[in-house]
Design goal:
There is one protein chain. By secondary structure, the protein is α/β, with parallel strands linked by helices. It has a domain at about 1-10 and about 25-150: P-loop containing nucleotide triphosphate hydrolases (Rossmann fold), CATH 3.40.50. It contains ten helices and twelve strands. The chain has helices spanning about 30-45, 60-65, 105-120, 140-145, 160-170, 170-175, 205-220, 230-240, 245, 250-264; strands spanning about 20-25, 50-55, 75, 80, 85, 85-90, 125-130, 150-155, 180-185, 190, 200, 225-230. Strands 5-6-2-7-1-8-9-12 form an eight-stranded mixed beta sheet, with helices on both faces. A two-stranded antiparallel sheet has the order 3-4. A hairpin with a 6-residue loop joins strand 10 (about 190) and strand 11 (about 200). The chain binds adenosine-5'-diphosphate. Adenosine-5'-diphosphate (ADP) binds near residues 29 and 61.
């Protein structure tokens, strides 16, 4: 919509009833996108109206994990998002040909996010989840500007080295005056398929370390909302576009994720 003035972001308007959660992590590969799509699918299954913005512009993966293979359509200057499992979703991958990489600088990212928030027809959502890129880059700053009321959900692994980085990503909230809703620890041990004993592949305690650190830096209590074990079914669900909370809701990962969704 070149030349036209930017539309207001509906979720940032005073009195908006949509809860907005920005899912953040320090490093990539900790399961941030997996957590986002499973929370979205669990909430939709509970009857909430849910949307997901894949704001991980360079590493977009949400549509595949959610099995959203539809294309956005345009209706009177608005973009209609495809949906899957009752979740509306928009991703930059839906606008790039094939698997072409997105090679953009900060201002372009901001513009894309602005359009995802304001030019997409979301309807009345109960919850909007934003899958942020890892780290504290341009998109995190843009989210803070465009949706200052977005609450931050930090995903980390149990590893102490990863926790330090995750804490840094969360502490951006101090500068942006955003609330941190809580910490999710992912890949918290692997139940041995033979004896059931937990193998702490990535160590322990990272989630609590991040929560304690962010409680100190923000001055507000930041809880650990839950711990998700390593579970082959979670990975398979992502590959197949059927989130584990739906395909196997009572599996260890499925039930942990549903419990976290219930706290948001
Ligand atoms: P991020 O968004 O942080 O980069 P992803 O959600 O893409 O991370 O997860 C990275 C990979 O790890 C994916 O292949 C995903 O299926 C897998 N994965 C994430 N969490 C788990 C888990 N708890 N158990 C098994 N595999 C997982």
């Amino acid at each position: 919509r070149g030349g036209q003035t930017e539309r207001e972001v509906p979720f940032a308007k005073p009195g908006s009833l949509t809860r907005v959660y920005a899912v953040a992590s320090g490093k990539g590969g900790v399961g941030k996108s997996s957590v986002t799509v499973n929370l979205a699918a669990a909430m939709a299954a509970d009857g909430l109206k849910v949307g997901v913005v894949d704001a991980d512009i360079y590493g977009h993966s949400v549509p595949r994990m959610l099995g959203a293979d539809g294309r956005p359509t345009q209706v009177e200057n608005m973009i209609m998002p495809p949906s899957a499992h009752g979740v509306k979703v928009i991703s930059i991958g839906m606008f790039t040909p094939g698997n072409a990489p997105v090679v953009w600088r900060g201002p372009m990212l901001h513009r894309a996010l602005q359009q995802f928030l304001a030019d997409v027809y979301w309807g009345d959502l109960d919850v909007l989840l934003l899958d942020l890129p890892p780290g504290t880059g341009d998109i995190a700053i843009s989210v803070a500007q465009l949706v200052p009321n977005a609450e931050i959900l930090v995903v980390t692994t149990p590893q102490q080295a990863a926790a330090e980085v995750a804490e840094r990503a969360g502490s951006i909230a101090v500068q942006t005056h955003q609330k941190i809703v809580g910490v999710v620890e992912n890949m918290s041990g692997l139940p041995c398929p033979h004896c059931g004993e937990m193998v702490d592949v990535f160590g322990t305690g990272g989630g609590q370390t991040v929560a304690d650190g962010l409680t100190r830096t923000t001055g507000a209590t930041v809880p650990v909302l839950g711990a998700i074990p390593i579970d082959v079914r979670l990975r398979e669900g992502g590959d197949e576009g059927k989130p584990v909370v739906l395909s196997d809701p009572d599996s260890p990962a499925g039930s942990a994720l549903r419990s976290i969704a219930g706290k948001l």
